[in-house]
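Suppose you are handed a protein chain with no further information: no name, no annotation, nothing but its sequence. What can you learn? This example shows the usual starting point.
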Amino acid sequence: MKFDKVTPDPKGQVIDVTQTGEVRTPDFPIIPFIEGDGVGADIWRAARPVFEAAVEKAFSGKRKVSWFEVFAGEKAQSAYNELIPEDTLNAIRHYHVAIKGPLMTPVGGGFRSLNVTLRQIFDLYACVRPVKYFEGVPAPVKHPEKIDTVVFRENTEDVYAGIEWRAGTPENQKLTDFLKRELGAEIREGSGIGIKPISLVGSKRLIRKAIEYALQNGKRSVTLVHKGNIQKYTEGAFRDWGYELAREEFTNQTVTEKEVWEKHQGRLPEGKILIRDRIADAMFLELLMRPEQYEVIATTNLNGDYLSDALVAQVGGLGLAPGANLGTHHAIFEATHGTAPTIAGQDKANPGSLILSGALMFEFLGWPEVARIIVSSLGSTIRQGRVTEDLSQEMEASTRLSCSEFGQAVVENIKEELE
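A reasonable first move is to predict its three-dimensional structure. Written in structure tokens, the prediction is:
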């Protein structure tokens, strides 16, 4: 594979992904990375040494990542005069796996979200966001330790499909007239209009991935979250297709909430996964009052965005929120927070989101020992009270570290275990 302005390490190796999605990772994989905009450069400089120390601890030099920088956002605009150059797209296509920092997205105008664009180009249909409490992290709830939830958020449809027309445009007026005339819709003059597609294929493949994850990881429940009481033919259909999928493909491994009460006296049968659904607004209440009851959530795009942030707000904020965007043949792991331009370049940001996203990446690659080392050492650093400003300001006894110092503290904990 040849590139215009970037060059991978010729000694690195290509990760192979089979037609069925099986990942085969060589000993020296090339992994493209995008620093990102705003605080992206800060958090990448802190996270990369953590990744390298963990790989060294796990494999003592027998395996090593060959990092390959590619560009998107501001750095791409400067180098290529475009926001997502073909070099970057070709690198992700060829090497299958990438990791990235946050990318800028204007609000209310300008270009479309680069994050969403990458997800749609590579059909990264499952946004996976595990949320778990780290001991010592300040939290606004009484029992944050009860939270251990993985959100599977559909990543390509819903309002994020970007099918909308600005109020006052000819296209908007044409659609408004059609909806009124042909379908009897009541639409106020001067309305912006958006279309919300939710498909059978998109819903089922996302819910399938959530159920498969629950089976592989010994989880006891998968909850379908939707607003089907109001949006009956989109979110309501998502719910119905979820139950249909469970009946058709996982009939021997799953049981519905109704069946638990009618056939099993309210007790979940051993070896079965509970499939149930909750209305989205009620789910916010449930995750505040009874989070321990919800191990895996499968939901639509916008609901998943809201719910994952609401969950992580209870356990330390977005600085500790990892994210994986998974498709059949490609995966991009990313920090889930924004670019935070007001502190960019000041070495203040919390790199925890990117570090934990790296742990998800190593799990995906089939290097779980590396992931365990990263998570354990980050947790040890927090328990020691050595944290960045966002956490320190809420902790009574702590040592406030810069972004780079926090990364180095995690590395020190890794190396202490090495000795």
